[in-house]
Design brief:
Length: 81
């Protein structure tokens, strides 16, 4: 595992120490690695949503009214389409 040296602001350092002292994590390294894993998972979700939005924006406009769109969405949600 790669070894790094990083600096924290005082509030962040105190928060890290509190998490370790509360036995949420066994070390600051474990905590930092967990935070990075969470951020990476979140980025995957953001990328997925961004791709869906891009696809939707590029698909053009519809002439369907809101009732039809709602009914189609409900059908998709219920697995009917």
């Amino acid at each position: 595992m790669a070894r790094q040296s990083i600096s924290f602001t005082k509030p962040n350092e105190e928060w890290l120490k509190a998490q370790v002292n509360n036995e949420e994590y066994t070390s600051k390294s474990e905590l930092i690695n967990d935070l990075i894993r969470q951020a990476r998972k979140q980025q995957v979700q953001v990328d997925f949503i961004r791709a869906k939005l891009d696809k939707s924006e590029n698909s053009g406009f519809t002439e369907d009214n809101k009732e039809l769109i709602l009914n189609q969405s409900k059908s998709l949600f219920n697995g009917q389409i």
